[in-house]
Write a structure and sequence with these properties.
The protein has 195 residues and is α/β, with parallel strands linked by helices. Helix content is 39%, strand content 13%. The chain folds into two domains: 129 residues, Rossmann fold; 51 residues. The chain is globular, with a radius of gyration of 17 Å. It binds magnesium ion (MG).
Length: 195
């Protein structure tokens, strides 16, 4: 009997899960403005770490994204391997809150480094409105979203969508009862069993 296997959706955040964006931004900031902070000390409000205003931080992110030298850090060596393993069992989604103006960079990055991994790229910002990641996960019945940003982790909790915290210095206050991984190699240990 020819039975079609329907794989469940598993979602990954892009910035600071698939791509080390903040680390690259700190390198840019050091070169351009002569100031950086240790990665391990970065909190949810980077502008406070850097001693600048929120508006100045936003402007500097725009400068960063305009500079292809910095904003496309290559993936870590184990990333593609681990994503490929996951792809055998799940339908992989990339779910990003990236500002509408800079979304093309994510598409270009994926095309360059991981062209055969994700079944779909979903952006929650369409230039006019912004959905929550929790609602998108709920609609797609995702097995989990792997996410670093507290705001999106909380939206998953609100929508009862399973979420796995990708350990970063700025999310250490998220409650301990939520599964947490430091590397994607650990992902299979915390995903629910497939049935
Ligand atoms: Mg992120």
């Amino acid at each position: 009997m020819n039975q079609k296997i329907i794989r469940k959706n598993l979602a990954f955040d892009f910035d600071d899960v698939v791509c080390n964006t903040v680390r690259a931004f700190l390198a840019f900031h050091k070169e351009k403005y002569g100031r950086t902070v240790p990665y391990a000390s970065v909190g949810t409000k980077l502008y406070k770490n850097l001693g600048i205003s929120k508006k100045t931080e936003d402007n500097r992110w725009d400068e960063f994204f305009k500079d292809p030298k910095f904003c496309y850090p290559a993936p870590t060596k184990d990333l593609a391997k681990n994503l490929r393993l996951m792809k055998k069992k799940y339908r992989l989604l990339l779910l990003s809150a990236r500002d509408y103006r800079w979304q093309y960079q994510i598409k270009a990055w994926i095309k360059k480094y991981l062209p055969d991994i994700f079944a779909q790229i979903i952006f929650i910002d369409n230039g006019r409105t912004k959905k929550s990641k929790g609602s998108v996960c709920r609609r797609n019945k995702t097995v989990a979203l792997i996410e670093d940003e507290p705001e999106h982790i909380k939206s998953c909790l609100t929508f009862h969508a399973p979420v796995i915290v990708f350990d970063r210095p700025w999310n250490r206050n998220i409650k301990k009862s939520i599964p947490r991984i430091r590397t994607l190699a650990r992902l299979k240990k915390v995903l629910p069993p497939l049935n």
